[in-house]
Structures are given as structure tokens and as C-alpha cells.
């Protein structure tokens, strides 16, 4: 996550250039929709990132029109420009879910620029009780996060439309139950391959790696520097290279959405030394995935790398 942003005023609308997450197709004119809204008075909801929009859509079902501001996995997730059109779309939302931890600061800025007493805002950082100093902002890779989000979404939607509160709660329960397959895959990996040494570029999937019991040998300073767009020290780069040349790791995971010459050199070095490479994503790959299948696919890719030495650079 490269935090690099500016704020400016344009005809009374806040315009941001934010280096924190992936941009979507143009909101309001073909932005990706999530869920199956059919009701005429559908609740308008927005997920700052498409993984949150997907959960909103699954919980809201036919009574919620959910969309995402950032959803394109083929776009550099470290450069995002929130336009006046995005501001208009957010101003009309009755529910917004955002990540927090400095990842989507632009969302709070826009909300403050156009306050609404009736708008529901779920900040996942605050929902989980995490401090601003939380070093890894990729909260959606943390098992348990989306179950908590789903329950809170159901509660807020139920307050907006009390007549459908039971429907929202039932959908949240169904969503949480559907995470069992992913959790089983996590448990299976941890049971069979606990302690598997891996290398990474950024801490995108670090929460998941911790959950499966993998041992991430990449220096934290290098992960943090790459995430924040800072050149890592020569010592850390050398230490990372040694993980490949010394065959000290069994898998290399990198941020598939953001690569540069350093990342490409690591990928090449991993391939040269017979180490399988797995690409991980900051935003949910679309089309073809929902949150559950995406997270399961990431665990399956890691498992294939360990068991069969197969690379999965693209889902």
C-alpha cells in the first residue's frame, strides 16, 4: 500500500489522488454491481473495495444495490483517483463499508465533505478494534474479518429497512456458514504443512499466511518498504535474494497487482531456483469469484505450490 495522496477542492467536491487501493470501472456508469437487487426501493450501498461490496451484496440480496469503488485487479492498486463522479455516488449511498487503517482515507474525506446523519458507515478497522498503528492494512485476508463485517452489515441494513431485518440476518448467517470450506482448507494446510518457509514482497496475504502456519522469512522492513513505495535497503534486498539462491523457502508470494523491476527480479530468481510463485491480490479478481471462492483459491494455490511445486501467478 503506497500512501501517497493529495486533496483539492473542485466546484465544492473533494478530489483525491490516493495511493492506496485499486481503481474500478467508472462508478455510476458501469461500475461493478454485487448482489441481486430487484426491489424498487433497494438500499444503495458501497464497498470502498470490491471484496466488501461483494459481502454487502451477499447479505443484502434482493433488497440492496451494492457497488464497489475499487475493483479492477489489473490496475495498479497504489494509484487511485477519486473523481467528482465517485463523490456523487458516495453521497447517495445509504451504507458504506471501508477498510480503514489508512488504506482508503479518501473515503472518510469524502464522507466528511458531504455529511449525512442517515448514512451508515462501517469502518472495518474500528469494527475490529484495531489501532491506527496496525502495520498490515489488508484486513480481508484475516479469517474472521468478513464474518464480523457480514453481521454488522446485516444490523445496519436492518436499521435502514426494519421490515427486512430477519432476511438480512439470515443471509449473513448463510454467508458465514459458507466460509467453512475456506476454513477447512486453512486447517488442513496448517495440519499438514505448518512451518512451511515462504518469501513475500508485500504483506498482502500475511494474515492468511499466519493462519495457515506458514513461516514468512522475508524481512518485515522489506515488506513495509515495498508496500509504502520506499526503496528497501541493500541489506534487506540481499537477504531476500538469499532466500531464493539458498533454497531457504518453498514458495514465493507477491502482490500480483503491483510489480516493478525489483519484484520482477525476485520472480525471475525464484523461477531460476525452482521455487514456485503465487500471485496474491489486493482486490477480488472479477469476474468469476466471490469472496469465499477467492480466499479458497488463494489457499489452494499455496497448497499446489507446496505439494506439486506448481506456480499460480494469476487466478
Per-chain topology:
Blueprint: E1 6-10, E2 13-18, E3 33-34, E4 43-49, H1 50-60, E5 64-70, E6 80-82, H2 84-91, E7 95-98, H3 105-113, E8 120-123, H4 124-127, H5 145-160, H6 165-178, H7 180-193, E9 197-200, H8 206-212, E10 215-216, H9 220-227, H10 234-245, E11 251-255, H11 261-272, E12 277-280, H12 291-308
Parallel strand pairs: 4-5, 4-7, 7-8, 9-10, 9-11, 11-12
Antiparallel strand pairs: 1-2, 2-6, 3-5
Task: Describe the protein.
There is one protein chain. It is built from twelve helices and twelve strands. The longest helix has 18 residues, at 291-308. The strands form three sheets. Strands 3-5-4-7-8 form a five-stranded mixed beta sheet. It has a four-stranded parallel beta sheet with strand order 10-9-11-12, with helices on both faces. Strands 1-2-6 form a three-stranded antiparallel beta sheet. The protein is globular and about 60 Å long. It has 315 residues and is α/β, with parallel strands linked by helices. The chain has helices spanning 50-60, 84-91, 105-113, 124-127, 145-160, 165-178, 180-193, 206-212, 220-227, 234-245, 261-272, 291-308; strands spanning 6-10, 13-18, 33-34, 43-49, 64-70, 80-82, 95-98, 120-123, 197-200, 215-216, 251-255, 277-280. Helix 7 (180-193) runs parallel beside helix 12. The model is unreliable at 1-31 (pLDDT under 50).
